[in-house]
């Protein structure tokens, strides 16, 4: 995975024409296609260096196993440095002052490299005590160092900054984004993590995204299925004053696509089944934890694993808290969950072709599911049936009603389910932004993933 830092001024510089071999600003040559985030990289002049996360040390007094290769300036040398570093438990390789290559494992993400102690060490050496050059030079490259540089540039130059996370699915972009935001909280509050209301809200944004935009895939148990631009907003004093999300490219096809081995629908559906109260389940006609009862959640017989019920229920409680903190009240939450339940019931609506009415619309084979879904959506059963059985098309400049057969009605049903989830998700993002964003922020640091 690649981490880039750019200011708006640097972007403008980099857009100019340059002669071959010359630079018109920072060079960003990291290429996509990495395996676990350790892909090929074209470094800028000046080579690269390795990172372990805390001050360099070698108990045996020997050379760091990847330090010799880290000075290479070719793709093969840099790639080999990343591979060697990963084998040694070293997650970072610096290409220049603005670019890091991160190669994480589950062990490295849970190690002391990202402890509170490490956070404070980098905060002090890279921002608060900048005149202590020796202290900074004693540290290996780290995402905390990159964040401190971005924050320092924003504070001193009054320029907005951006941290760009690039990598394949499962390479650790979401976890790194959390580290970036946590370290910004530390820098903005002189060591405290959630000392303001805005920081408190920002800490819960991740829970909302994880619920509505993350799902298990073959590559990752918690892959984020949407592009995110998250702004951490600051006032004139450099304190966090707000946060804003911009989402794009939601994988809405996941709502209705048949699940393959190791995959699951968006996390929020499991939260809904396992974390709803008995009265909510009765109202929405959900059976506790029975994912196989719904077509959009059902998995093939040979691969049924299912969500951990206790964990899903706990995450539902956390989601309710996160929504409340970010300005979505209990009544709005109930409406959101009700729409999710309607989507599940919509997936169970079945149609058939009537042989004696071959030129007519498809016939509903599960009227009880139509009734439940219509009630949850606040429309009549007849209106919902018509919306699924007929389609308006422009033919020769005229609007015509097209009768759908069973196959067409099923496609129309799935399209409606995807549209409902898509609109619900972006409405939720907008609602959260209304309560967390600071329209008068002096500057921001954005995280793109």
TrEMBL record:
Residues 1-11 have a biased composition (Basic residues). This is Myosin motor domain-containing protein. Residues 125-449 form the Myosin motor domain. ATP binds at residues 167-174. Residues 1-69 are annotated as: Disordered. GO terms for molecular function: actin binding; ATP binding; microfilament motor activity; protein serine/threonine kinase activity. Belongs to the TRAFAC class myosin-kinesin ATPase superfamily. Myosin family. It comes from Coemansia erecta. Signal peptide: none annotated. The lineage of its organism: Eukaryota, Fungi, Fungi incertae sedis, Zoopagomycota, Kickxellomycotina. Keywords: Actin-binding, ATP-binding, Cell projection, Cytoplasm, Cytoskeleton, Motor protein, Myosin, Nucleotide-binding, Repeat. Residues 33-48 have a biased composition (Low complexity). GO terms for cellular component: cell projection; myosin complex.
